[in-house]
Amino acid sequence: MSATRPRIVVLSGSGISAESGLPTFRDANGLWRDHDWRQLASPEGWRRHPELLLEFYNERRAAAAQAQPNAAHRALAMLEANYDVHIVTQNVDDLHERGGSTQVLHLHGELAWARGTSPRRLRTHLGATPIRIGDVCADGTQLRPDIVWFGEAVDQLEPAAERVAQANKVLVVGTSLTVYPAASLVDFAPPHAERVVCALELEREPAGYRWLRGPATQEIPPLVERWLRETG
Ligand code: NAD
Predict the structure, then answer these.
(1) pTM of this prediction?
(2) What is the DSSP pairing of strand 194-198 with strand 7-12?
(3) pLDDT digits (tens, 9 = 90+) for 135-167
(4) What is the per-residue burial (b if ≥16 Cβ within 10 Å, else e) of 207-226?
(5) What is the 47 CA–ligand 1 centroid distance (Å)?
């Protein structure tokens, strides 16, 4: 049934969760303040300061578990009544799922999951539980956050690009389009697709997109209402 419905692909970033109380990438402070985050959130950072990385992600996991989906997350879920909706998110929180969206692809991993450090990459569900040094998965290797760090491959990029390329509408929300390769996904939208970007500020304004320059909780619900009306 979903194949016959028009497809909407939503490319989301940390700005959509800002009004749920989770800091965006640029706002992130605390442990990041005294460190170069690009080095810390990297395989090299993990080798040099594993305790620091675990602490940083343990704090973020706890904060994400406390946060609640906001009006923008919930509005996007309502689109599923009339559209085949695919959320492709850079976010590592689960606010889209808890807001009601059912098809969510996490490009950069998920805070609620850990994985082993052998090539088998065995995944374990954590929920809000912290990871400590000495915590191991079923094959005996140390657990690490199941997050894609700088310098690591974004395995979900190709399926995400395929979804964007088949979209009738593309909505980009809450991302400054600075982190690659995720930012390149905006360019896979077909020329006939309606393209909208919602952000307070943008590093680059993507060609062919209409920019809604306001907070997601104010801009997204009316947009969703309009798109639902279009399909009767
Ligand atoms: P970014 O900080 O580079 O950009 C945030 C964007 O959101 C900006 O364009 C800003 O203008 C916009 N924004 C801020 N508040 C907004 C609001 N209320 N409504 C609408 N737009 C708003 O973040 P990014 O582009 O997502 O950076 C990418 C990286 O940050 C990703 O790798 C992601 O994994 C990571 N990250 C994720 C989370 C999360 O999961 N909640 C939080 C922080 C960082």
Answers:
(1) 0.94
(2) unpaired
(3) 999 999 999 999 999 999 999 999 999 999 999
(4) eebeebeebbbebbbebbee
(5) 27
